[in-house]
């Protein structure tokens, strides 16, 4: 199995068959009543997700320090501990590999970690991890679409925010609220490190009729939801919230297995935004 990443600014060009798949999704949309119910029960669905899967579903994210050099960069002029916030921590697949890597590099005191998730069960898994230490990590449950997070973190106190496959799980009506909340927490020149599902990702094309809520926003079988981002749309949201764009591109990943005839196109949006 081979993985190849291509960093591309243009959207993927669809085949006729793929265009037909997208059109077929419009034959039966999620009803307004069901869409409102999904929104009202969003936390319940994610909590059930972690009840079923516990810590087994997501792989540890060892790739983050390769893609986001800020996580390893040493600032000799500012040796103080920085504050890092992970929004949507899940069961710790980002924070614990990062801690282990920094410990190996003798940078154990680089960050104090704030990690939060919508699911109380996910947060408990983070707290149960053998590396959890309240001297270096604060894990808590919150709804990032509200101002709840300010009960745990002071405004203008965070150096780096990571948001990896999180915003896509939130209704698009609340995207701007979320980004403005991030802006309030960051110090001037603080950065958001972002990766999420990109427009025309394989997973988007696989949805059948009856799963589409609105354009690019879908209901999964388990009641969780997923949005697929167009990168210019994402840029406008952050620009409107007081950020500048450091980078913003599509990552086209192909999972290839010639022997088995597998060629799976994945598309992500990867970005860095800095608070002005």
Layout of strands and helices, then pairs:
Blueprint: E1 2-8, H1 16-24, H2 32-40, H3 42-53, H4 64-67, E2 82-87, H5 95-104, E3 111-117, H6 120-128, E4 137-141, E5 158-164, H7 175-185, E6 186-197, H8 202-206, E7 212-214, E8 217-219, E9 225-227, H9 231-239, E10 243-257, E11 262-275
What order do the SSEs take from the amino end to the carboxyl end, as H and E? EHHHHEHEHEEHEHEEEHEE
State the major sheet: 8 strands, mixed
Average of pLDDT: 90
The CATH topology name reads Rossmann fold
CATH superfamily: Vaccinia Virus protein VP39
Protein structure class: alpha/beta
Low-confidence stretches: none
Q: Any idea what the radius of gyration is?
A: 19 Å
How many strands appear in the DSSP assignment? 11
How many separate domains make up the residues?
1
Pfam families: Methyltransf_23 (PF13489)
GO cellular component, one term: cytoplasm
Catalytic activity: cytidine(32) in tRNA(Ser) + S-adenosyl-L-methionine = N(3)-methylcytidine(32) in tRNA(Ser) + S-adenosyl-L-homocysteine + H(+)
Protein name: tRNA N(3)-methylcytidine methyltransferase
């Amino acid at each position: 199995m081979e993985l190849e990443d291509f960093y591309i600014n243009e959207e993927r060009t669809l085949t006729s068959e793929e265009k037909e798949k997208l059109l077929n999704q419009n034959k039966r949309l999620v009803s307004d009543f069901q869409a409102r119910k999904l929104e009202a029960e969003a936390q319940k669905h994610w909590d059930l997700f972690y009840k079923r899967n516990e810590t087994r579903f997501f792989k540890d994210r060892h790739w983050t320090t390769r893609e986001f050099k800020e996580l390893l960069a040493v600032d000799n002029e500012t040796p103080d501990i920085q504050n890092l916030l992970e929004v949507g921590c899940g069961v710790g697949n980002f924070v614990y590999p990062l801690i282990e890597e920094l410990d190996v590099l003798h940078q154990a005191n680089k960050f104090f970690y704030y990690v939060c998730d919508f699911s109380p069960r996910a947060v408990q898994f983070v707290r149960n991890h053998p590396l959890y230490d309240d001297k270096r990590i604060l894990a808590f449950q919150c709804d990032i679409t509200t101002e709840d997070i300010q009960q745990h973190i002071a405004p203008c106190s965070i150096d780096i925010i990571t948001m990896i496959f999180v915003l896509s799980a939130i209704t698009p009506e609340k995207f701007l609220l979320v980004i403005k909340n991030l802006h309030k927490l960051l110090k001037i020149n603080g950065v958001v490190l972002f990766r999420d599902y990109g427009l025309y990702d394989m997973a988007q094309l696989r949805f059948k009729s009856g799963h589409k809520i609105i354009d690019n926003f879908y209901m999964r079988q388990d009641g969780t939801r997923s949005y697929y981002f167009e990168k210019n749309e994402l840029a406008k949201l952050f620009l409107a919230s007081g950020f500048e764009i450091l980078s913003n591109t599509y990552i086209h990943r192909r999972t290839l297995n010639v022997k088995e005839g597998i060629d799976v196109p994945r598309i992500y949006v990867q970005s860095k935004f800095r608070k002005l």
